[in-house]
Design brief:
about 260 residues; mainly alpha; two-stranded antiparallel sheet; about 0% strand; elongated; disordered N terminus
């Protein structure tokens, strides 16, 4: 009866289930980060922007390694394989240090470069009186999403060809077109008053800050996983020693 009671206590104090759950969360997080990296890399290539191959390769390696390490950690926890957890801990130590340091050092550069690049891209579309089909589609989607019109001077940027995406149905955000100020545009039409460029740039800044926050937070989470894996290794070792002691018939009550 004493032996069974001791085994139950050891199982109850195990970190196996919390560790497996944390690894599952980590797999989902790494998959999300990998998706973000692939999407951002694709957009940059399509826009013809130069991409630092070193930074992109580092992110791909970190995120794919993160997925593989999570699988290894779950296997080690479920099977009681300490060598799997040792590899997991070593990988997480290297990955967490790398992503925290690279994120901290590159935050300002990525933040400023990304925002300036997108702002310049929109300004290059001026004037809006005759935009290309691709630019027109992009502008329409921005105006419809952010409830704005034009880029710099609002609806005036479109001249007399104000598109339907500028039409406003939200009180407080509309301005009524009057007189000759609209250069031939339909009179008594309500359009969005605010220009899109400041709103879009502000949203970009929030997006970059969120992306960097996710990366930095991932590094901190990996440190937590590292600590959990070390504690779990200790528990597995103690449990193995305890079971070996039971089998050798040299068990002394109160030793564990």
């Amino acid at each position: 009866m004493q032996r069974n009671a001791v085994v139950v206590v050891a199982d109850k104090t195990s970190l196996k289930r919390p560790f497996v759950f944390a690894c599952a969360v980590n797999m989902a997080l790494c998959f999300f980060m990998l998706t973000m990296t692939v999407a951002g890399h694709r957009d940059l290539l399509q826009a013809g922007q130069l991409v630092s191959s070193v930074s992109v390769v580092i992110m791909y390696i970190l995120e794919i390694t993160c997925l593989l390490l999570s699988v290894l950690g779950v296997f080690g926890a479920c099977r009681g394989k300490r060598w799997c957890l040792i590899l997991f801990a070593a990988g997480m130590a290297a990955a967490s240090q790398t992503i925290i340091v690279t994120t901290a050092l590159s935050y300002q550069d990525v933040y400023e470069t990304g925002v300036v690049r997108e702002e310049s891209k929109l300004l290059s579309m001026m004037p809006l009186s005759a935009p290309s089909k691709t630019n027109r589609t992009l502008l329409h989607s921005i105006q419809a999403h952010f409830k704005c019109c034009g880029l710099v001077e609002g609806y005036k940027d479109w001249g007399s060809t104000i598109p339907a995406s500028c039409h406003c149905q939200y009180p407080g955000k509309c301005i009524r077109l009057r007189g000759i100020a609209t250069l031939g545009a339909p009179k008594n039409q309500y359009v969005y008053q605010e220009a899109c460029l400041p709103i879009y740039v502000s949203a970009l800044k929030r997006g970059f800050s969120l992306a960097m926050g996710i990366k930095f937070g991932s590094g901190v989470f990996w440190v937590v996983l590292l600590v959990m894996s070390i504690k779990l290794m200790v528990q597995i070792k103690r449990k193995q020693e305890f079971m070996a002691l039971l089998q050798s018939n040299r068990y002394v009550p109160g030793a564990f």
